[in-house]
User: Fold this.
Amino acid sequence: MTHVSIQELTKVYPGATEPSLDRLSLEIPTGELTALLGPSGCGKTTTMKMIAGLLEPTSGDVCFDGRSVLRDKPENRGVVMVFQNYLLFPYMSVADNVGFGLKMRKTDPAEIKRRVGEMLDLVKLPDLGDRKPSALSGGQQQRIALARALIVQPNVLLLDEPLSNLDAHLRFEMRDLIRSLQQEMGITTIFVTHDQEEAVVLADRVALILDGQMKQYEKADVFYKRPVDEATARFFGGHNFIPGHSNGRAFDCALGKLVLPEGAKSGAGKLTFRPENVRIGHDADGENNLDAVIEDIIYLGTQTRLKLRVGDTALEAVVNPNEIENHPKGGNLPIHMPRTTLWVIE
Amino acid sequence: MGKEPLGIRSFRVLTGAVLITWLILPLVPLAIWSFAKGWFYPDILPRNWSMRAWEYAMSDTAGVLDSLWLTIWISLVATILSILVGVPAGRALGMYKFRGKEIVELMILAPTIVPGIAVVLGIHSIFISMGLTNSVEGVILVHLIPTLPYMVLVMAGVFANYDPAFEAQARSLGASPLKTFWYITLPAIRPGIIVGGLFAFLVSWSQYILTLLIGGGRVETLPLLLFNFATSGRNDITGAIGMIYILPGIIILLLTAKHLSGRSGAVGGFGQI
Assistant:
């Protein structure tokens, strides 16, 4: 049960001119599961290592429950980091791996044995204790690495790309396992990932880091509905950015005058909306109706991506394949955009 | 092993036979001499056999056993010191990039290139001024010059293929730096330590010039004793001491055949950095 507070955390590696992480501040409430999301090399793993005490920050502070932990050695922080490639100790059996943290804490061997058994049950691999890590599959190694971390009941759990090395069908199993264990034990958990899907699927809240700086820290759905800027929207698969001018109620641009939702920004900016929120057909009330031409149709199996043009403005839409069946390439397509799906960014 | 063409197969058998002959054959006369009571041309084998040379070698008066224990002691301490220096040095060379690394590598390798006799006279005068000559300690210290390059080389190869993230993982799980070394680092580098240590032991074991000059003849290791008997024409006793002298080499070869085959990656040298 630990509230993690990261304050102006900065890391400049020796010899580097640009900081790998630039004044990152983040408050992670007790027991929450937070994702640090960003492209590779954006400073996510650096942040994790600094929280774990494996790397010294250039400046800034890491506090647990209001107390700075920078002077605490990694073994005394109550933080366990699970690395992306699991790092199971190859010279030890699976059971010895899981029990390693307890052994380091000088726990009684009988007690270690009992708790290792419990932990292996919890990750649903009760019979693998005697094996060597090399005899396990990737998914099994991942679960053992998780068991090895959780057995010491850390205050803070750090996961480096926890799902990225797993097959699609294992991902959801692992996601459910991580979430249920994390909720059950109430461990404040931070994980890093470059995959926005992984972040959205697993985390309570997502912190997006681009170029060493935090862009936005919100519940996952906000990144889709209310991105803070174009880079953020693009990272989450946004394609439509139309320059124009907002008066807070309507947006004046090449598409015409579109009605905005409440709380939209005023002034010069860009209108953005998700491709999947473009509706086919005109709205009965005549709000935000447009007439588009279909430039291209890209069939993606469960959905279809449309490249549209309204006047001289290119748009992208993602629709259900059935909706587009009778509309050939090059034809006209009436569309509308519900006002709640629109958003204005700078 | 699948089927291979007859030509390659017979070539392999032939080279194997040549290698074994080359290594074993010179030892045969040595072994025969140690049991011979005179062995003269044109006899193929000695006419009379005797255990005399062995009895003498094992007696208290000959000093062979004292010399054996002294040699083992010197080589053992030199090996342990080589490990203590070679592991951290190998880690630095294998894992980190730093300014002047090439020069440091060259300096460490230098003793394997420069003949010992060329430098030992200079070392001798320095050791005299430090009062280290004519002592076992001085001999052990000077043995480190040829043993260290092998130890550092082997460890640099081991650490070049070593992932320090395992150590970070252990720390994160609550292990102190000392426990991390004991439970994580040591098991990973153990084959390298064994191979490098055995190299160091053998190199120290076979030192002659360094021991002679720095020990001043008072530190009489097995090679010195062997040389005395060899030059005095006692072929039977030379044979017996020679057999004792090659024993560690054979034992080590048998023990490490697995590690030396190259598959374990213990012997990498700077080539893998």
Remarks:
- The two ends of chain A are 39 Å apart (CA to CA).
